[in-house]
Amino acid sequence: MTAVWVAVALVIAGFAGWPITALVFRLARTIDDRADAAKALEEAQRAEQDPSADVTVDQTLAASAGRQTVDDELTAPPGRPASDVAAAGPAPTTQRILRGGAIIGVLERLGVCLAIITGQPVAIAYIVAIKGLGRFAELKETPVAAERFIIGTLTSMLWAAGTAAAVKVLFLH
């Protein structure tokens, strides 16, 4: 019966943890978006009160000339580069941040859960060290990736540790 509870704990910790992590990522993004909106509103209010920042753009004139406006600045018509920007080669390709994160997260949660159930908490340090060393170069280059790495790792580890502890206390005496 112990093997069944260990298997249940591993399945719950490993595979049911990704929705929790995704929820925490969504919550973090919502908090960031609200902070950005509040900052933009504050800057707009400050610019509104500053008489030296009184710059206006006639939106109807820009629209009738076939130009788009972005943040009240005139831009080139769609499909044509701006006159002061040389037409460069192809746009750089975008790179996904932290590729393989879902698979690594499942393995991390499985390892943490197994470490707690077997009474080997030092193994958790190895898991974190391996994960951190494997991502070091990418995390050093991209602050967004580093923040995402920390949020995902902490969420995964807390989920796996909580699941393992609950199963160990309730079912594995």
Structure description:
The chain is mostly helical and 173 residues long. The chain has helices at residues 2-15, 17-49, 59-64, 101-117, 122-141, 143-171, and strands at residues 69-70, 73-74. It has a domain at 1-36 and 101-173. A two-stranded antiparallel sheet has the order 1-2. Helix 4 runs parallel beside helix 6 and helix 5 runs antiparallel to helix 6. The radius of gyration is 25 Å and the shape is elongated.
Condensed summary:
The chain is mainly alpha-helical and 173 residues long. It contains 6 helices and 2 strands; from the N terminus they run H-H-H-E-E-H-H-H. It has a domain of 109 residues.
Amount of beta strand: under 5%
Count of DSSP-assigned helices:
6
Distance between the termini: 12 Å
Strand arrangement, major sheet: 1-2
Structural class: mainly alpha
Whole-number radius of gyration?
A: 25 Å
H/E element sequence: HHHEEHHH
The low-confidence parts are 83-89
- Tell me the number of strands: 2
Residues in helix, %: 55-70%
Dominant shape: elongated
Largest sheet: 2 strands, antiparallel
Overall pLDDT score:
81
Would you spell out the secondary-structure blueprint of this structure?
Layout: H1 2-15, H2 17-49, H3 59-64, E1 69-70, E2 73-74, H4 101-117, H5 122-141, H6 143-171
Helix pairs in contact: 1-4, 1-6, 2-6, 4-5, 4-6, 5-6
